[in-house]
Amino acid sequence: MDQRSALNSRQTDSRRSFLKTAGAAVAGSFFTPAILGAEDKAGSKPPVLGEGAFQYEAIHNWGEVPKHIQWGETHGVCVDSAGLIYIKHRSKTKTPMDAIVVFDPAGKFVRSFGKEYHGGGHGIDVRKEGSDEFLYLSDTKHGVVAKTSLSGEVVWTIGRPAAPEHYKDTKQRYSPTNIAFAPDGGFYVGDGYGSHFIHKYTKEGKPEFYWGGSGTEPGKMKTPHGMWLDERDGTPKIAVCDRANHRLQYFSLDGKHLGFVNTVSFPADIDIQGDIMVVSDLHARVTLFDKQNQVITHLGYDQDWTNKVLDGFKVRTQPETWQAGRFVHPHDACFDQAGNLFVTEWVSTGRVSKLKKLS
Question: Which of 81, 154, 197, 254 would suit a FRET pair with 46, their CA atoms being 20 to 30 Å apart?
Fold first, then answer.
């Protein structure tokens, strides 16, 4: 996450507005979630999060991090078809460090790569194309998106867009945060820390069209941070974490505004498995939604803990204060094939948690 953006948001987002956002209704019949009972049932050693058919054992500081890696802010996570877990982090060390670290399902280190993304490690997703799989990477520091093999060999790299006119001013920042995949083989790139536009590319990486820009009205965004192709109701659409507007915003595949989901606080990214959507919320919780975008449960949520976390954002640099079963700043979350969740957090020393599905 961009720290300046977070601090500015904190200054303008009071507890009252936070509570209002968390309880707001959704515009449109498809976008009508309701909170069904979000209190987590926390056990001890390790704690259990969730309720009903969605309970998870929380294993914090997951993965055997090798000696040559010192976690920076753990920004992204994805899982390939073999079950390998890819973590992308943003290190601030002077000496370049591999930005992508790969673990097997048991948490054993497999490999690392990506020194060229040092300092800009952000979004990471995996896509199967024919019999091969590829990583799609977003680099917020160097202003590029890249397609690589699972071991980091570059297929292509795309830099600053030529359109709209906004980008002709070199003082205007371009800082892509995440990518979503299109059904036609193309993909969408969110300029989350820059112009607040979303750009559509062909499968070959050629620009097609764009939409958005900064604002609060429908179709405009403030930090389109993460996004995902949502096909759960049979009609493909793009769900966008319109983070600084405290909402999810839905678009058609050609960028037309469809509706909002407001039962989020500060959404960072999205993953979908079957009918279940997970949203990593930077305001100290991970939320599960059903097919109708009704909230199933807020994992790790406690209002008093959230208030502490958001009080000047000091907790993110104080791991000695972190609590088992609570999140600090979830930045990404994804499912593995067994329905477990992996959560990465925007904290200074990095933090990866495995939520082992129990029911």
Answer: 81
DSSP string for 268-291: EEEEEETTEEEEEETTTEEEEE-T
Q: Tokens 């601090």 appear where? A: 7
The SS3 call for residue 349 is coil
Q: Which amino acid is at 158?
A: I
> Does residue 315 contact residue 272 with C-beta atoms inside 8 Å?
no
pLDDT in tens, 24-66: 333 333 333 322 223 334 445 799 999 999 999 999 999 999 9
**Looking at the chain, how many residues does it have?**
359
Say how far apart CA 346 and CA 5 lie, in whole Å: 13
Cβ(96)–Cβ(105) below 8 Å:
no
DSSP state of 263: S
Phi, psi of 116 (to 5 degrees): -65, -15
Share of the chain above pLDDT 70, in %: 88
- pTM for this prediction: 0.89
Q: Which of 293, 287, 177, 275 is nearest to 225 (CA)?
A: 177
Tokens of residue 211, six digits: 């939409």
Distance CA 29, CA 182 (A): 24
Residues 289, 35: Cα–Cα separation, whole Å? 10
